[in-house]
């Protein structure tokens, strides 16, 4: 089993020069029986899933951002309402209440925003598995505006995938071997 | 090759009724003049990786020498000899350090304004210069931080600002605007640095693919393993959208809170309810002025930048500068009018001192360079599209806005309700330290121009994909598709 796993083909990496043939190729691959889970598209510009006719990508970024905002808000609540009462000498300023609302609002706003933005940044790292310096399936031509389709599918013969991609105008087709970026 | 380009590649033989050909549009608009992505990458990377000339090294050497003398050595003296060598004294306890703090925070506002607000409103002209502007935010905030630390004197005690339990069992609370400042500036510095880094990741990945040697390793580490998969783009796009919306209120909060450092005090000239928006518009005024200067410098001194930064961009920023100048004039007059009408004895004395005191020339110069000159020049599309002219206006606006802060802080502190304390402020060590922050700001740009791609190439390509020419009857117009 372990031997058959190690001999498993790395999949196919096809490079296209334009958006339209890439989207066509994705559609034809699907017709050939390659499911969306078995494909990954790599591009140098943020082309939306809809343009490729691909299912919507799930992202945890908004949820993690919301979580960070709640954490920031909670930290502000702690600093404003709980922490001061742990210590015996409160600082009284003029005739202001011990915990006056207007400055507390500033504290809440800043820490909520800080929590949200820090967690948004962190969420990109978590969702994208950054930093990742292991070898990965990639072609540098993507940086120059090409589109790459990585097909990794066990139940459709690789030769059929390659033939189809070639017919649909792939500029190059090669094994999707993981390389050091 | 993009579908946007396909459309523009079709030869347009005819002229529209203005006599405009496709070539005319291409020359004028970067978004209609697409080059293959690889060519654009090479142009940007050539500017970064090309062996620095002797002029570059000389510039770096001279700027570094000034930073060493004005910033490092002078700061050392300030610490070693104490704040007594600064000009601050009764009644002007706040001097140029605070003027520079407010000035640099103001400069930092344009980065967010250009990058976030223009991104939210999908202003297409922003695309090639968002990074240059975002760098301005981060570099400007560094100078603001330095300035406030200088003012602090015993900078090693800066951690006292943090809300931590101290040995006297006092819990620092949040009554003071200075503690709000700490929160707001920290939030803004961290947010703007992250907002600078996120859109930089795809360009760092491009740089990684285009370089060898130590640079490749440098970019490989910074690119974090970015490939451009659908997932990575989706997460990046979501994050940038959240940042673009969220950083705008943070930006407004920062300068509003800075204004409360003054307005919360019941001093003549400071105790104004309009100081918050007045400071924000002032920050945008100086920030846009600085942005146009930086843009002109990048275009002039960095190779291949004239393709990316064109007259249309100066025209667009020039229009914003004009509108913001009008806004600043409105808020200035509003603030002035109410204080003048109030009839308070000391406020009247202060306003008279502003206009007719020994530094009255500064008050009039402020009005001339912040209002009269921008209005006289920026109304004209041809003039505001001329890089040297519009950047000269930008420099003058910044001089004017520095004067404004000088008038608000040390000059206004001169006149208070105790005439026996009145005394003019004369700066000392603040002058070299102020020069040091300015030179460090420039030096950071010069160094970073050789380290990171100054143009967000993927954003430019995305914009070029979305633009095409379309004929409506006899008229040829630019059409933009919403791809984001």
Describe this structure as you would to a colleague:
The complex is a heterodimer of chains A (181) and B (484). Chain A has 181 residues and is α+β, with helices and mostly antiparallel strands. Chain A has two domains: 2-56 and 134-179, Alpha-Beta Plaits (2-Layer Sandwich); 61-127, no CATH class. Chain A has six helices and six strands, in the order H-E-H-E-H-H-H-E-E-H-E-E. Chain A is rod-shaped and about 80 Å long. Chain B has a single domain (3-7, 23-158, 176-480), classed as Up-down Bundle (Formate dehydrogenase/DMSO reductase fold), CATH 1.20.1630.10. Chain B is built from 19 helices and two strands. Classes of the chains: A alpha+beta (181), B mainly alpha (484). The interface between A and B is large, with 70 and 67 residues.
Can you tag this structure with a few keywords?
heterodimer; A: 181 residues; alpha+beta; Alpha-Beta Plaits; two-stranded antiparallel sheet; 45% helix; B: mainly alpha; Formate dehydrogenase/DMSO reductase fold; 19 helices; 2% strand
Helix content range of the residues of chain B, please? Answer: 55-70%
Distance N terminus to C terminus of chain A?
30 Å
Spans where pLDDT lies below 50 across 5 or more residues of chain A: 1-6
The pLDDT mean of chain B sits at 92
Domain unit count of chain B: 1
How would the global form of chain A be characterised? rod-shaped
How many strands, which pairing sense, and closed or not: the largest β-sheet of chain B?
2 strands, antiparallel
The CATH superfamily of chain B is identified as Formate dehydrogenase/DMSO reductase domain
- What oligomeric state do the depicted chains represent? heterodimer
Instruction: For the record, give the distance between the C-alpha atoms at the N and C termini of chain B, rounded to a whole number.
Output: 18 Å
Biggest sheet: strand arrangement of chain B:
1-2
Total beta-strand segments of chain A: 6
**Beta-strand proportion of chain A:** 5-15%
